[in-house]
Amino acid sequence: MNKFTKVASISLLIPGLLLAGCNTTEQSQAEEAKKTEESKTATYSEELEKAVDSYRQYGLEQTDLFVEGTTAFVEAVKAGNLEKAKELYPTARMPFERVEPIAESFGDLDPKIDAREGDVPEEEWTGYHRLEKIHWEENTTEGTAEYADQLLNDVKSLRAKIELADVAPQTLVTGAVDLLNEVSASKITGEEERYSHTDLYDFAANVDGSKKIVDLLSPILEEKDPELLDTLEQRFADVYTALEDYKTENGYVSYTDLTEEDTQKLSKVIDALAEPLSQIGVVLEG
User: Fold this and answer.
1) Which residues form the signal peptide (predicted)?
2) Which of 197, 199, 269, 286 could form a disulfide with 254, with the two C-beta atoms 3.0–4.6 Å apart?
3) Final residue of a structural domain among 133, 166, 199
4) Phi and psi (nearest 5°) for 247?
């Protein structure tokens, strides 16, 4: 081989080696990126599984409190202690309002416990709101023992079902938003507790339940979208600050004490929270 041929061969070989080296590097980088992405996906899956397990445990804890509070409420009703029953009514319901996304998954148990007048046929209407109407409208506990017993049985059935519940990740994603929608749809309007006017207790409990879900998802949100998480934490803080104006020594003021300006203020902070809250599903899927 003459000198020219050798040089030509080397010249042709070098680009080939460089190209091969480049391809190898790109392939290596692609494989590394894939491994990193798979590792992140696995981590997110583990974190989501932890969140789901923790939410199920939260559901159990809250329904334990619900059984406890309902038991005390029913005892007061059956003892004919109207004032005590009225006092216990709003706080007994709060644990249920915090975990309503789980409760609603059990078919007819939710309406048996929480249906408002007109939600179901009159002959099928039972639960807390049936008793609420009698206690506040008729100002008596007479003739309510059967409703009280049925309520406690239904609440205990709910607790038993949650023990075996299969909570899906989607329950968390939609649950946080659904709880806030509950506030907008029936608490802000005063429709939920139309006789007792204890809507602010339900309002606060729904927000508590939504905040709990965000807290459980925060490790994933911190990694995927820390700015969104910061916004959510600030907006939740704004809601709780707004609620402080209506707190009393033992709970909250009657909803009838609120002016139109008050309800508009509460509606504004709820709407401000709803917008970033609705982004959670997109972020988790991304």
Assistant:
1) 1-20
2) 197
3) 166
4) -80, 150
Hey, is 107 helix, strand or coil?
coil
The string of pLDDT tens digits covering residues 40-79 is 555 568 999 999 999 999 999 999 999 999 999 999 999 9
Written as one letter, the residue type at 161 is K
Q: Are residues 71 and 143 in the same domain?
A: yes
Q: Token digits for 26?
A: 């790109």
Range of the domain at 81: 50-166
Residue 151 burial by Cβ neighbours in a 10 Å radius (0-12, 13-18, 19+)? buried
Beta bridge partners of 120: 117
Does residue 157 form part of some domain?
yes
- CATH code, domain with 208: 1.20.1420.20
Domain tally, the chain: 2
Residues 130 and 236 in one domain: no
Q: Which residues of the chain have pLDDT under 50?
A: 2-14, 17-18, 33-39
Helices (H), 79-225: 82-98, 100-103, 109-114, 128-133, 145-163, 169-182, 199-224
DSSP 180-196: HHHIIIIITTT-TTTTT
| pTM listed for this prediction | 0.85
As beta bridge partners, residue 247 has 252
Q: For residues 284 and 173, state if they share a domain.
A: yes
Q: What's residue 6's pLDDT?
A: 47
Query: What would the pLDDT profile of 228-246 be if each residue is shown by its tens digit?
Result: 999 999 999 999 999 999 9
